[in-house]
Sequence to fold (351 residues):
Amino acid sequence: MSDTPTGSLKLAVLNPGGRAPEQYFEGPLKPDSSAHPPLNFHGFAACTGGSFHRLTKSALAEKLPILLLLRRNFKAAQRALTECLEAQRTVVVSLKETGLHQVAEQLSDSRSLARFFDLMKRAHGCIGATPEVADFYRMCRRQAAATTISFIPTPYPLSQPEWDFSARPDKQSGIFIGTREWDIPSRNHLTCLLLARRLCEITGESVTVFNLDGWKGDRRLRELAFPAGKLRVVQKEQPYVEYLRELAKHKIVLQLDRSRVPGQVAGDALLCRTLCVGGDSAIERIAFPTLCGIGRTFDEIGAIAKELLINQNARATAFMESQWRSMEQLSFEAVRKRLQKFFAQFQQPAI
Fold:
């Protein structure tokens, strides 16, 4: 997927016991491939021309520095870390699910917390996919050098032409709702739909939302009483490429998520060359700082969204700024340099 320079860092990402199969990012990966797209933690492997594994022995066979993902009760991660350290590999760890509510849930019992602290203590370093989780690692690794913990955002293949899902601006219309979960309070999904309804009434723009909750979700949506013909409901999950094509048709992506996640919704908006408004993910704060939800009320976010919907020049300016920021900080090339600098501090023994 990446044209990694000779001699630069290659990374083996290990998700012990995970479902995603082994994957090697040695050449271009097309969007219509059946393989996992080069996003989230797969993106760290892809941007370095590395590999992604679920079996520890496969990751060790690569003889590369390892990014070990921590998930569920951390038992598998503990075993994997022990094997990797015995094989004298450099091992950096990261929670796989890093939203604030997800971190709290994973560490809610004493046994998991004890295992997590053990992993924090023994690993060479930590990468946080959000600034908040990186700060959390610093509090857990009080005796560790500050340089061994870093916030590095998940990268996106923004410079790869095949991953440009942009639609012509004159073909874009409406609002795409970026959230789906009604039952996670920090997602603010209901409030987002109410704000979208107001914008719909003011601007005449239509709204698209995914409903994966069947008849229960349909009943909830009917209660919101959107103007006739202005709410489009997608009733089933789509393949990732089709989802991107759907998202790209819209002028803006709207969400009021306050979970402090890495930001795949915002990253998807970048691939579609559209704008993400109202959330607080790491990617939104980097690529869309004047549109994100940090320090803004829902009414203020609504005013921003309204201006983008009715003012093509404002939308074009915001788009250019977001693309410039994302290429500088979120592209494969930019994140690869940050990973290279971070891992350079760890001595990788000859094997």
Notes: The CA atoms of residues 41 and 154 lie 7 Å apart. The chain has two domains: 12-157+331-344, 161-329.
